[in-house]
Protein 1
Amino acid sequence: MKTIKLSILALMAAVLTVSTSCNKHKHDDENETGTAQVHFEHVWGMSESAFALNTNLVHPMSGDTMNFTKFKYYVSNLKLKKADGTWWVHPESYFLVDAADAASTTLSLGTLPVGEYTEMEYTLGVDSTRNVSGAQSGALATTNNMFWSWNTGYIMLKAEGTSPQSSTGNFAFHLGGFTGANNVVTTKNVVFGAENLVISKGNTSEVHLKCNPAKLFHADPLSAGTSVMMPGAKAKQMATNFYGSYVFEHVHN
Amino acid sequence: MKYSYLIIAVLFLYACNKNKQKDTFELSYPDYFPTPVYNFENNELTKDKFELGRRLFYDGILSSDNSISCGTCHSQVHGFADHNVNFSTGVNNLKGTRNSPAITNMIWSPSFMWDGGVNHIEVFSVAPITNPVEMNETMENVINKLNASASYRSAFKKAYGTETITDQLMLRALTSYMAMLVPVDSKYDQFRQGKVSLTTQELQGMQLFEQKCASCHTAPLYTNHSYQNNGIDSVFSDLGRGRITLDEADNGKFKVPSLRNVELTYPYMHDGRYWTLEQVLEHYNSGIKHSTTLAPELANGLPMTSDEKKKIIAFLKTLTDYTIISDFKFAPQ
């Protein structure tokens, strides 16, 4: 009994200490921020060799030799879930990842409150709202050439290049679509698991993700078609396969 | 008769600063007009934006060789349609495959282009600017050219408070001009407002029009903004709406055009195949071609005697607004 009473006392004392220190922390935390980045790595095929532009890559299923000259896609609406279950929402969260621009494969989320984050949500493509709301800016500016002028909507992914297996010598896949059966916009959720993302004062923490552009051609080789220029069943199939290849790798705290 | 005007106004009113009143700007339309689709959210209408938009509208700088402006194919004296040609001529003397429509009453339109492919007035201009057979330019080049102009930079500064010209601001400025193209001083409008009477022939034409045409060409804008196959083809070289929706049920359908200023905007149909209103009415009277997507209302045609056709045409001519086509405010300055 005595031990139990003592334990209870100790527990109460501990709770008191923790709660005061928590309060204190809380007070400090309000002004304490760190920064976060999300990094995308592009790998090719089952061997996960490095994906690069202007390089001959052989597709592991079709055997098609593909030399990509352009590879770009939109990532949007990043959110991070705090350990207390609330979400930190990145404002104006639109990024164009371009394989030709190494800096663009790292998305900078700017400053956010210090603390532990257990999950991340992000969207591949551009949400329907921004597709129907008129002229946009930043990553969504029409000057980025990722916009269909004649059939309003963002080109959510552009993959272009050359291939000896293409009937025209070239391939060009412009994938998009934000309504109905042709909606390709995909929201992904990452549970960090073993090691959470920890934002600490003055530090930059990183989330590393990986995707595999070979998955675009998981269903069809180039002999089945070398071009997609609008939303539709083929765009949906290619985008679904590719978006399915995004996986969480690790965090750097 | 009562008439009143709704006023969307727009006012940079600083109560204590009377000088600022010169910025006051209004878009007026009759109270029998519906609520506009475009509500100027994020792009409050001002005189500076309108004037900047007008300058852009009439400037060839938007095209790759600086030869073609918006106004080239959307001419004020033709009700902001092209100069009575079936297909417009763009950069390098190339021609398109559809007739340039009148770009008036755009703020009431839920979609743009004959096939409705464009969903917002602010992004509408990207299509003609980047189309190789129209202005053949890239948005990037347009913005670079504008940023290289000190005079444009200062005009953007005046209108939007920044010298850094972006596509977003350029598109919004063009919108500010186009939004004002609202023809509301036709004889029909004056009649609705109790200012004038229609002739017996015009009134009879109006009644016939109500019976035969108004289910699609609905007052007061004289369109219901739907897509219809009006029986001009049974085999579709241009899929129209079907090209956008990829739905076979939309093949051969095109946006029902407004009939305001219809007297001025010939030739008619998406490909400008009919040059007179008589030909158009004769098509509905005797020329309907059947297909699975034909508008059901047209299954048996719209039988009209030659006297009825004359009356309907007399009524259609009451929809012409001579004020807007001669208003200096909308002309290149």
Protein 2
Amino acid sequence: MEFINLVLNSFSLLLSPQILIYVVAGFLIGTIFASIPGLTATLALALLLPLTYSLDVSTALMACSSIYMAGMCGGSITATTINIPGAPSSMMTALDGYPMQLQGKGPLALGHAAFGSMVGGALGAILLIALAPFVAEVALLVKTTGKFSLLAFAIIVIVIAQRGKVVKAGMAACIGLMLATVGLDAMEPMTRFTFGSSELTAGLDLMPMIIGTFAISEILIQAKSNGCAEKMVDALKKIKICRRDFIPPLSEIRKVGLMCYLKSSFIGYAVGTLPGAGGSMGSFLAYAETVRTSDEPETFGKGNPKGIVASESANNAVCGGALVPMLTFGIPGDPVTAIMLGVLVINGIQPGPQLMSGQAELIAPMLASLVFSALILIPLTLYLLGPYFIKIVAIRKDILYGIISLLAVVGSYVATFSTFQMMMSLVMGILAYYLRKHDFPVITLLLGFILGPNLEEFLRRSLSLSNGNPMTFFTNYDSLFFVILTLVFVYFLAIKKPMKKPY
Amino acid sequence: MLLNKNIIFYFLLFFLSVGYFVVAINLGAPVVNNGLQPSAFPLLIGLFAMMFSSILLYREIKLIKSKGSCLAVDSEINETASIKDRLAPFAIMLSIFLYILLFSPLGYFLSSLLFVLSIIIIFSSVDKVIQKIIISTVIVAFGYLVFEQMFNVRLPALWG
């Protein structure tokens, strides 16, 4: 209850014009990035990460959470109007949104997407606020051996969640773990893998890692796909959107039914809590469940508004869910929460169970911003600026990537004012580019890098406490719990037959 | 071409894993007095990396063998990708590399102007250069406003 009061009090921070500007600007940037196919909220966060140096942690996290929420709903605009999802999480929205557009019901589809995003985002954030303190209390019970098993669980689940490319995901995670071992050893005064370079003694910085992996690699990938941009701009010229398109009539909302909103939001939230799942999986599962329980499953994929609502409610509810493991255990569930974790680390704050109990005043404003973004900014932004997003999407690609390149490369200079970090960003960008080109999921690389130091430290401490006996991971109940959980996930994600795609 | 490139990439990953593992061995004994030493974790990671890269390599070799000659695939792929598209990522890598080298000596404005102009040209074409120079100047000025004026980041100047 104390934490809920803290969050409620944090809403007053939004009355400060400076903070409100950062939150609103973050939301607008997130929506713009999510609505432009090829750009994502992750890229927006990676580019803006260096700027968080000059902000206080709470304000930076508030802006990050509004970008996160915006990133989930912005993609629905192009998914519905031209069948090109602006963000991967809006893929399922396009299945029913675009057929509705073709039937002349485009405005209604946009309205359902906006309202679904609002409901899902708000429910996810409220569930997070209500449940996170309890999870954090439970997290405090996890001791050293349990912490190792938990981190191992997170990495294994993220790897096996990459269906069809588990070996590649494992390799990418190993590269991330390898990079995490560069520099001074955490427990003994000894440097590793520095090859005599004094600049590597402190290890690799998180900032060039994030900018390289998500921004520079994206620029390199987009350089190869110039052709489809012109077709997209042509398609966009034919589309006309009005403000009122983003408000669905009450009768249409009733037709969809409250259960569809609630069930999809809960599915999205639950999926979000799993490491590596993300918005795409959340919307896919919610969509599949809506089709499964529908009386008329044959109408899905042909313009059923329930499909749009299920997808958008779920992907926005994922935001709340994904923040649970990040805030309570220090385990990011997706690239956005990994970057948000980076904001904490860069500011010298150690994420984990102690964060919620010891520094809840830093976290509460972020959650207030998440609710504010869902309830106020989603409807307001889409209503006021929705029609203009179509024009923004049609921005010249050369100018867009000129701006992004400048922000990415100069951004990596900001951390240490050294060109060495800029060079590291380039190296990481080239590595991530080749990995992505060969279909390796770079999220596992980043998570390996972020979780690596703690994974090693807890492994060594656990074995040191047990006098080198590896059975300690099975005899301690907290550790055993995560070992069993890992086995359960391995069974369901890697051994059991995957669920059939609805379409 | 693609299949060959895959093989080369997987070989590189395999060599990277082996190299990492060898360096980890040279860090010393992994276990001393029942306690893990700094080399233990890297050895474990190196082993996993070698295992994953070997599987990828094995699968790729098996795929090539099952498809017979990869030359047919080569020609198909070559037709679909234009030379400009294939060279664009390398041109960007070179642009960023040169930008980083020139960032301190030339200062923010001049180096950034050249960099942004090069990126714009890579993403479009060499025509309407004057217009592109003007756009680049506006972008660089925007970057200056964001970093130096809004967020108080001290950027290098030509005069030191």
Protein 3
Amino acid sequence: MKPSLPGASTDRRTLLRLIGLGATATLGGSALAACSKEAGSKGTATKADAIRSVLPAHKPAVLLKPDVPGEGPIPDGYLSYPRQLADAVTEQPGRGGPAIRTMSPWWGPTPPTLGKNSYLAAINAKLGVDVDPSLQDGNTYADKLNAMLGARDVPDILSVPNWEVDKIARFSDAVKALFEDLTDHLKGDAAAAYPYLAALPTGAWEYSVWGGRLAAVPFPTDGPFAWALFHRKDLFDRAGLAAPTSPDELYELGKKATDPAKGVWAFGSVFDMVQQLFGCQQTWRKRPDGGLEHKFENPAFAAALEFTAKLFADGLVHPDTVASKGADEKQLFKAGKILMYQDGLGAWQGMQSEQTQVLPSFDMQPLPLFGAGGSQPLIWGSEKPIFFTFIKKGLGKDRVEELLRVLNWCAAPFGSREFELREFGVEGKHFTRAADGSPAATELGRKEMGAQYTHIGGRMPVKVRSADTPNYVQDYIGYYQKNIGLMEKDLFAGIKLELPANWSKILQPTDDKILDILRGRRPLTDLEAVRKEFLTTGGEEGRAFFEKALSDNGR
Amino acid sequence: MTTQGTAGVVETPAAAPAAPPGRTRRKARRTLRARLARDWPLLAMTAPAAALLLVFHYVPTLGNVIAFQDYNPFVGNDPIDAFLHSEWIGFGNFEALFRDPLFWGAVRNTLAITAFQLVFFFPLPILLAILLNSLVSGRLRGLVQSVVYLPHFFSWVLVVTFFVQMLGGAGLLAQQMRQAGLQPWNVMTNPDGFIVLVTAEAVWKDIGWGAIVFLAALAAIDPNLYEAAAADGAGRWRRLWHITLPGLRPVIVLLLIMRLGDALSVGFEQFILQRDAVGRNAAEVLDTFVYYQAIATQQWGLGAAAGLFKAVVGLALILTANHVAHRLGEQGVYSKS
């Protein structure tokens, strides 16, 4: 499988579906007898103001002026690879300490380990200290992480994806017990010692505070949208299909495009995107009276559910998607067996570049967004960093500084020699240079590299044009610029939430029930009952918790 | 519950060799020291296995205390400390568990699948073993045997994918039927037929593997019995009924009892993979319930409570089945004397 980098958002899809945090809810134990107590956290929320005082002072460090400047959470774009590279780090970060054990996620075959990997050897020589990475399958990262945190046996540097953090109960306890408090190293002007960490956006740092202390280095997102609805533009054009502008047109298009005899179906998984097109919020939205309204209470959700259930009922969804969690929609999409499916935008460049080799006319594009019934779509997303990098507690001040210098090296910006070495390896070995100066990975490069350094250092995300994806940078940034105004505002930005156990518990069972309706195993009219069950068995408790978190922060 | 007050399952049949009668008295008076001096090589050989058992089975068993705690792995200074500092909540986890209709739904599904598979899966490896045993050509038997046990080594992901590719809506069968102008069957996504589907998958995967033990038992049956019976005019079926099956009976009973002890485990991946296809109502078993409600939400105490429940039910079933086996004159899994 081709890793979808650097936006790990792609793979969040698989993960969420596997663990079932995607949508939401049912029955839990409610009132308990007097003789014994109820287990599980009641949830906590850390206030946003407590967070601001510990952040690093932001100081941009851009070596090259971008050709397509991004704005806010949209990354900068470059249309050519620089001929001249600069040295970003002059002082060797390592002081020859013992090997630094790291763990980070990777979605692809595991590269060779330290001692058998020339890419690691080349960078470790530059660093002046050995980094000994352990890469774990990103789709099952939670399994490893849970065991590791429970046993309190963490490596020197640990990368934790944000969607895993949300799932780990009592994560703030874990942070306090296991990870170094970085506040004194990075607060305010102290961060100037690590210029490329100080250059990371303040919005990303805000999420890295637990219990009022700076606990992690963020890996900023390269685009805030959770999903896009990808379509095979090449196949659309060939069949003379125009992009739809309303749900009805989307349905008609699906009918036209589906041809089971040829093994072609219009849709893979699309439910999350359909909800967004119908203007439904991801979880909560504010009611005019100030309270919160769950998406199940929004008529837009019922409409989206009805629409998607019809796609299933009328056989417009590929049977593999219907039949198992194992359906590899990326493969089906590449093979033209499905024409539309939802995925993270991180999947885009990797798949386009890979498929261009197989089919030169291959063209995947996000479907232009449209609303239902004349209203605007509402796009889910957040500026939350993709990963957090934690440093093990109790290593001593000198060692922590050494590790931070290594992270700083790993965050070197585009246009530097360090960036090239980190992202592409050694010239002539891991990559060759095309005529336009841009690097192209060799077989060895593909084998030995697994973002071992990228995923631990919070680099500034950039989008760079490559010879095999000539239009990607403009398309990607263009899609964001066009639609960023439609993005849902994160009501809880900057507030650290530890969700109550009763809330977390109802998510999967409710998800299952919604799925039953979606697949036609229960009638649409059951939504009312599902919503009631959801609210009485933990939904209302969740609402109270979220409302309190908002009012405590004066929002 | 009929646990009949036995000393417990750890009671293994005493392996002490029967000493010659004349020396018994003198031996019984040997001191501990003398016995150690004599037996130390045997003890040394057992020690690694015993240590393994202790470290990986008995010590972790102590971790079950979290079933009675609101367990927080991050309190205190180290993992042991976390056990000591987590709050004791009595039977709170069990109450939450037993109050949860989802839990009972999962138990019901699990038991239904176990019962169904006892009838429709358990006898099949026996039949296969008898069939294989009756093949005269050793080469053919070896070939068939290899072919039928190979699937055991496939992961469930592969097995389920294989079934989807063959029987799914875009699979081989469905495409053939479409080409013939027929409406394809809905095999993989029908909640009502799910129990048959999972059993079929299990049979495909494990029938050959299950037959191995029975083949070994068949090989141990004295061929003279068959010859004698044949000489007395017993036909094929009579020999099967009066020699083969009685010869297999102890092994069948043993495996049946062990399967009953596992009655609440029917697998995990197979169900989690097909959950979306048929919905929770059909596919939720105890192990997936624990995964979604205890592990994914990190309610470790609740998970431990469910695990203890499973162990207690399993133990009760083993003891009962063993008791019944004794009554019927079988040896069972263990016996008191």
Protein 4
Amino acid sequence: MRGIGFRHHAAYAALILAAVSLPSASRAQSSSEAFTAIAPVFQSPRCLNCHTNTAFPRQGDDRHRHTMNVARGPSGHGAAAQPCSMCHQRANQTASGVPGADEDWHLAPLSMGWEGLSVAELCAHLIDPARNGGRSGDAVIDHLSTNLVRWAWDAGSDRNSKPRRAPPLAYEEFVRLAKIWVGGGAQCPR
Amino acid sequence: MVKLTINGMLHEIDADPQTPLLWAIRDHAGLTGTKFGCGAALCGACTVHVEGRAVRSCSMPLADAEGKRITTIEGLSPDRSHPLQKAWIAAQVPQCGYCQPGMIMAAAALLAEIPRPTDADIDQAITNICRCGTYARIRKAIHAAAA
Amino acid sequence: MSTAASIDRRAFLAASGALVIGLSCAAPRAAAQSGSAKALNAWVRIASDDRVTILLSQAEIGQGIATTLPAILADELGADWSRVEVENSEVAPAYQNPRLHWMFTGNSESIASFAQLMRKAGAAAREMLIAAAMQRWGNVAAADCTTRDGKVVHRPSGRALSFGALAEAAAQLPAPANPTLRPAAELRLIGQSVPRRDIPAKVDGSAVFGIDLKIPGMVHAAVRQSPILGGVVDKFDAASIARRPGVIGTYPIPNGVAVVAEHFWQAKTAADALVVSFKPGQKGTFDTASIDAQHRAALEGREFGEIVNRGDAAKEIAAASEPFAREYVSAFQAHATLEPMNCVASVAADGCDVWAPTQGQELTKVVAAAITNLPPEKVRVHWTYSGGGFGRRLLADFVAQAVILSMQVQRPVKVIWTREEDMTHDFYRPGTLTRLSAAIGAGGQPAAIAARLVSATQLQPVSPAPLPPHTDPRVTEGLEDTHYRVAHFRLDYHRPDLPAPTSVLRTTGFGPNIFALESFIDELAHAAGQDPYRFRRAMLAHHPRALKVLDLAAEKSNWGERVAKGRGRGIAFYEAFDTFMAQVVELEVGSDKAIQLRKIITVADPGTVFDPGIATSNLEGGVVWGLTCAMKSEITFAGGAVEQTNFDGYDMVHLWETAPAVETYLLQGGGEKIGGMGEVGPTGIPAAVANAIFAANGERLRTLPLSRHGYSFAQA
């Protein structure tokens, strides 16, 4: 849904608003509050390492550039002949310490890069169909249940048996608050 | 019992399904061309093709390979006739030679996707470790095989 | 060399038995049943179908020796190279390095030590074949006969007899005591680039490395060695894993335990799950800081061995109005062979067979004999291709484990170390702390240089003889004097007794010592306001051979041409392993200290070049190896254990990090000595890189690896 103009953006926003009951003042506040509560999840290494703005992913809790010159490639699935799936398999591997999920391991597209965004900017980003993979409100929630996203809470351990740090909210709480955010009109904090 | 098709031949592997594919290939199917270097997907010595795409076999469990077409260095050609193998010999690439099967398999996957890779393509696709430092000749041989 | 990975044991042992033929030139050359190959001496046997088998005493570790030594013999012999086969010899006196009377592969000396022996053996066999032909022909002059392409040829008449037809008769004749070598004009392999014999098998997966071996009845072992170096097992609970599939048992090894199972992955996962605890050994625990402190205390102390004292450097430096002193540090390094340590041993009542990717052919036999208490003639060592050696495989700790385990389980046992076990149980190239002082003379040149070096042993673990205190030729070489015209030169060396295990690694002491010396010379040049190449040149003006390598490196690197801002060139000159070397590195330093290499020039003069292709290959690969040492390699200790466990913590240079232009040039300066090629490529690189960085941005780096100073290679 890239390249859709401002008019369509406004129309989408209207659709979202129309799909829910008109927010009262208190609910609009709790929608943006809900987003403030879930923002740290998006900003955690497990998410940010693949939602990069760059031609490469990152890895680790320290978010260093992915070693071995690993690149985004033309479609986010790695450079030619070095797909992410060359090493990342369908589950976390204890033997090699390589993380994996039951989905083809790949990067979020550049349009969904979140590095360096403030909380407000992140929010705007997430509801902009041009920058969220063309998703409307419920579809944003649906995306949170893909295996790659869920992997963040089941990220396994590294080669030295050190568990990878999960995002700061429990998954169920994250989804609950995300629904409040979207349900309350996907309001963004200032 | 896990059934693997390697280089067109069926192998029945009596091993734990979580055994890395690398060790099933080496110890059970008896194909030792694919090498163990690190066990952590850091060196690429274990590179094979699964359904034609490069995979570091130390990181794929045996169970995930069942029913898929696996190619190892032994299956690249019956007689060293693959263009990469000929180029590798012509350029006298290997020193100790331990990394080379994985290197050649990575290069074969690259040429299958990009028949005439640029140096930048090679930089990004060939990340295997060669401790002996034969990289310049590897690059030259890939270009020669692609020509 | 055998290329079958799976070998029938009896056939395998029978094949090994065939190598007993021709034990030494003096021993009777036992002929087996008629039709089989006849040995003309310890090094060559010929079959009636013209196949020539040449014995190889050295291990092929990537340096190409399995091609060059047989080629030297074949050239003298006049064999048809396409009908030559090469087989490893047994471990026996006839095959020992004639300089050291010991079988090993290392120190860049295989060609230097064996070339003459190969020529003599080939020439002797040639003369015996000619004599046999002369007997058949009757009435021909020896001077009219020669050998070529596997035949004895009578030049005037054109008559020829094949080696196969003559072998039996030739083998009966006495070996000539002093065979005549071919004139240079007749040589067709020596001095040529011969395609390596092992390369075809190394591109199709058929080459057998130690880790690939399959012996019938073999079981596998995975080790858990004490993470604290020098530590021992406290307790282990074999029952904790005894019921896992395939597990045969858990057994003690000198520094830990091993789990033996039918398949390696079963052994490895069981070993991971094994309940075992360790405790420090006699040396307690230690860390990098404690070792650094020990080095520092030694450097400031008074306990040194005076290795060299030419002139009176101490007096000159003490009298200097402005003494010039700098300190240089190199980190501990791991060998990191891509094939991890492994060994197969089969101990039975009638003898012991050991198969290993070893560089210590004879040490392996001695250790196995000692452990099994078998007489040496019942211990057979079979060495395979080695996925990198770099000196690590001169040792026999991994051999001892396999032998011990085979004795326990009474089956052939293959021990494989994981990368983690390998990296944390190395015998590391010791770190160094070096202080160089100079008294500056005319033209800013050093009139006197004094070096103080502190570094643990490299030679002791691989040498049978105990070293006197504060000596170690492998550690001090490179700082034992210099070709630069310096009137006074002194080296004092302190050899600390460290709790960390250390040994020799490719480049030996030349590596860190040339880094120190060539950085120091560079600093002197810049202090004098002089160009680093011209400064060196002035001090080598008396030495034509040194000048030639230096000048060629400068020429090929366009030294003196302006470089763009942020770019710099660095130069290094040295003699190592009897080879004269000069290297120039040109690089660009970006923001965040990210380096892009532009060009690397290497000039090598080993005196005589036996195989330019193989020599060039060694140099090119060596340059990359040296870049890893220069930029990345560092082993650190904490709590007595090594902190780096795999390639994520101990990274190697990768393809995209290498220079786009790497040029190597070979010169033949002649002389008696044959210089080595295996270790010289890496040796000057750290200094050349550091000197280039200084030229690019003015930062002088005195510690290796340069990552310690924040430098890295730019990602593509």
